[in-house]
Write a structure and sequence with these properties.
Number of strands: 23
Number of helices: 18
Distance between the termini: 39 Å
CATH class of the largest domain: Alpha Beta
CATH topology of the largest domain: Glutamine Phosphoribosylpyrophosphate, subunit 1, domain 1
Largest sheet: 7 strands, antiparallel
Number of domains: 2
Helix content: 25-40%
Radius of gyration: 23 Å
Strand order of the largest sheet: 4-3-5-2-11-10-12
Shape: globular
CATH architecture of the largest domain: 4-Layer Sandwich
CATH superfamily of the largest domain: Aminohydrolase, N-terminal nucleophile (Ntn) domain
């Protein structure tokens, strides 16, 4: 048989040193051309997921849906597309998968036609008992269309014996565990839900008389809407006829929002607890400088995630801040390239050294986090190869030692560098002259938290401490097979 000598082009993942983002959700009620505003809101939330996007609208009689792979601007940028999503109610979703595979079936929002009428849901987060629930549902005769944990919620709602839709939703919520922010659309009603610990974000906005639910405040700014408040932890908000009602059905728990919203996930211009994420990140840099200042010529960020912390560090130590690394903003999440030699360039697809700026300089390199360390090693090497005299690495968050199960795609503990090496060993691994992380105390101080009874009011900070607010019921620990495999197995049992 003759071999095919043609080189096959493949879709390849490129340099991505960070924890992978969560999803972005947006919904709006009772306003003309709702899908147009949802498209704009999703565009503002594009940083939370670039794998796929979808919008579902309701015109008073029927639901209309469109889901696509890729970016919002590439899929919802034409009038003829949005005109097929008529109605005064719409919700949307940007996807970055943490459960389920890369298939259009897993792109949200999800729709179901229940005995109480149609219902649509967008979900940011991850359920820690989805596999267990799915196995039971399949055993009872449920047929799953996707491999996403979000469909479990839809199945539970459809299976509920309660009569009213809101009661069906509450019935389902009491069966799920994990971290979640949910936006439901059911005919002329928009419903938002935040998990009992408030791990995943959800905010309320208003445009004239129309209410909005979204992951971040930056999605309000783009359409000229006003921020009203955050959805409380464990709260259900029901928006109907331009009126907002609240239900709190869960036992009261102390709120524990995800600390990585402050460190990395939220867009810098989004408001968190009354202050822009950008300002928190500058303060992380300032606190880092207090803990680990060192004589150097230049403060250099890893763009763009390290920019704010590097500015804060530079301002505190009163040393020059400069862009010693230049980012190529025109490289997307995937790169089609058949040649292994080019594929292996990795970090150079997105970053290049600014040689004239860093040559013969002692550099403090600032980044917001360190996960596996492989990219940090490549960046340090790039700086040395470009003439840097010394490279001292400073990380504006504590050591990441524990994986996440709440909607952030982290490696297993075996792959987390700080879980397996001490500071000195990590420094040697990345080949830096020195290495320091921001302490946990420093992180909370930078956020303005004060100790009470020698304890800081706690966020969801399990990445650093191992203190999980919700212990997984499903087998999601180290040496696990992927959740996709587990979900597929559950469907076949």
């Amino acid at each position: 048989m003759k071999k095919n000598t043609k080189i096959q082009k493949k879709k390849l993942k490129i340099y991505n040193p960070k924890l992978k983002e969560e999803c972005g959700i947006f919904g709006i009620s009772n306003i003309s051309d709702a899908s147009n505003l949802v498209a704009l809101g999703l565009h503002a939330l594009q940083h939370r997921g670039q794998e796929g996007c979808g919008i579902v609208s309701y015109d008073g009689k029927n639901y209309h849906a469109k889901k696509k792979f890729g970016l919002v601007g590439d899929n919802f940028n034409k009038e003829d597309v949005l005109s097929k999503l008529p109605g005064n109610y719409a919700i949307g979703h940007n996807r970055y998968s943490t459960t389920g595979g890369t298939t259009l079936r897993n792109v949200q929002p999800f729709f179901a036609d229940t005995n109480a009428g149609g219902i649509v849901v967008s979900h940011n987060g991850n359920l820690t008992n989805a596999i267990t629930l799915r196995k039971k549902l399949v055993k009872d005769g449920a047929i799953f269309y996707s491999t996403s944990d979000t469909e479990t919620i839809i199945q539970l709602i459809a299976k509920s014996k309660r009569e009213k839709k809101i009661d069906k939703i509450i019935d389902a919520l009491f069966q799920i565990q994990g971290a979640y922010a949910l936006v439901f659309l059911t005919q002329n009603t928009l419903i938002g839900v935040r998990d009992p610990f408030g791990i995943r974000p959800l905010i309320i906005g208003k445009l004239n008389n129309s209410y909005i639910l979204a992951s971040e405040t930056c999605a309000l700014d783009i359409i000229g809407a006003k921020f009203v408040r955050e959805v409380d932890n464990g709260e259900i908000v029901i928006i109907e006829n331009n009126e907002l009602k609240c239900i709190k059905p869960f036992p009261l728990k102390k709120q524990r929002p995800c600390v990585f919203e402050y460190i990395y996930f939220a867009r810098p211009d989004s408001i968190l607890n009354g202050k822009c994420a950008y300002e928190y990140r500058k303060d992380f840099g300032k606190e880092l400088a207090k803990e680990s200042d060192i004589e150097a010529d230049l403060i250099v960020p890893v763009p763009d995630s390290g920019n704010a912390a590097a500015i804060g560090y530079s301002q505190h130590v009163k040393r020059k801040f400069d862009l010693g690394l230049i980012r190529n903003h025109y490289v997307g999440r995937t790169f089609i390239e058949p040649v292994q030699k080019i594929r292996s360039l990795g970090v150079k697809l997105k970053l290049n050294a600014n040689k004239s700026t860093i040559k013969n300089k002692k550099i403090v390199l600032i980044d917001d986090s360190l996960v596996r360390g492989t990219t940090c090693y490549k960046i340090v090497k790039m700086l040395y190869d470009s003439g840097a005299k010394e490279v001292h690495v400073r990380i504006a968050s504590p050591e990441i030692k524990y994986p996440d199960f709440y909607g952030i795609d982290t490696p297993t503990k075996k792959e987390l560098l700080a879980a397996n090496k001490n500071n000195q060993e990590i420094c040697k691994y990345i080949n830096a002259k020195s290495l320091k992380f921001l302490s946990i105390d420093g992180m909370y101080k930078a956020m303005g938290f004060e100790k009470r009874n020698n304890i800081y009011p706690q966020l969801t900070d399990h990445y650093f401490t191992g203190d999980y607010p919700v212990e997984p019921i499903d087998d999601l620990r180290d040496d696990k097979i992927t959740q996709l495999s587990l979900l597929s197995t559950a469907s076949n049992n």
